[in-house]
UniProtKB/TrEMBL annotation:
Domain START: 25-210
Disordered as annotated region, ranges: 249-269
Short name of one Pfam family: START
GO terms classed as biological process: lipid transport
Protein name: START domain-containing protein 10-like isoform X1
GO MF assignments: lipid binding
Biological source species: Pogona vitticeps (central bearded dragon)
GO cellular component: cytosol; intercellular canaliculus; membrane; microvillus; motile cilium
């Protein structure tokens, strides 16, 4: 009996397919459209009903594509602007344009919080800046008891320049959150949480240049691999994370929680 195929780093064809899905319209249903932002969703498929597919796009008339790309890469800065982060860090590098990392985030109450271990890879093709990731198993990062281990089938960002100081950013998420989610969560993700995250990201991009000047201004290992201080890891030490091997929890009956202010965002400071 043959074992699973060896894990491979995404090649040019994989990035091309990701960009095509970001730009595709067929099969995507509009969930939100306002003020230069749009969010789409795809109905669940019979072969993988637990996978949620969401796509968001924001036009930023005052942010160069290079800046948006830096913001998406900068883990230290993400801890500052993304209030849903519980913990995030790179674990090891696999090549000049790929690493493996850990990310844990807050979910809307009363759902359990989630985490992922992902292989992330990035590339610039024809002035399109791309970052993609998918879930992997790392021997030193097994699922935790206090978090639900989610699975990213293919998630990422596409940043395209629309002028010297403007860009379009598309976010594509294809995730199995590992748990039967209530309908209000799915609706909220596309109609409230995704637009809110894109607005925060836009604000973060506007403030990044001044922040970076005071925080290791010349250090950008995603652009300059020689600056990368992470230990090397062989890709053969990782394996693809299959959703079927993880515990499923049923949260479908949970009701939305409200705090004293009536806020249901699930984000905390």
């Amino acid at each position: 009996m043959e074992g699973p195929p060896p894990l491979r780093l995404p090649d040019e064809a994989a990035f091309g397919a990701f960009r095509a899905e970001c730009e595709a319209e067929q099969g995507w249903l509009s969930r939100y459209r306002r003020e230069g932002m749009a969010v789409w969703g795809k109905p669940p498929r019979a072969e993988d009903p637990a996978v949620h597919r969401v796509k968001g796009r924001i036009h930023m008339p005052d942010v160069p594509a290079e800046t948006a790309y830096d913001v998406l890469h900068d883990t230290e800065y993400r801890k500052k602007w993304d209030l849903n982060v519980l913990e995030t860090h790179e674990i090891a590098r696999l090549s000049d344009n790929a690493d493996v990392g850990y990310y844990a985030w807050k979910c809307p109450k009363p759902l359990k919080n989630r985490d992922v271990v992902t292989l992330r890879s990035w590339r610039v093709l024809d002035k399109s800046y791309m970052i993609i990731n998918f879930s992997v198993k790392h021997p030193k990062y097994p699922p935790r008891k206090d978090l639900v281990r989610a699975v990213s089938l293919l998630t990422g960002y596409l940043v395209q320049s629309t002028g010297p100081n403007s860009c379009s950013l598309t976010y594509l998420a294809q995730v199995d959150p590992k748990g039967s989610l209530p309908k209000w969560v799915v609706n909220k993700a596309s109609q409230y949480l995704a637009p809110k995250l894109m607005k925060k990201l836009h604000k973060a991009c506007l403030k990044y240049t001044s922040w970076k000047q005071e925080h290791h201004a010349d250090t950008k290992p995603w652009l300059y691999p020689e600056q990368n201080q992470l230990p090397y890891m062989a890709i053969s030490d990782l394996s693809l994370q299959h959703a079927s091997s993880l515990e499923n929890i049923d949260e479908s009956s949970l009701m939305e929680a409200r705090d004293e202010k009536g806020d249901t965002s699930g984000s905390e400071n």
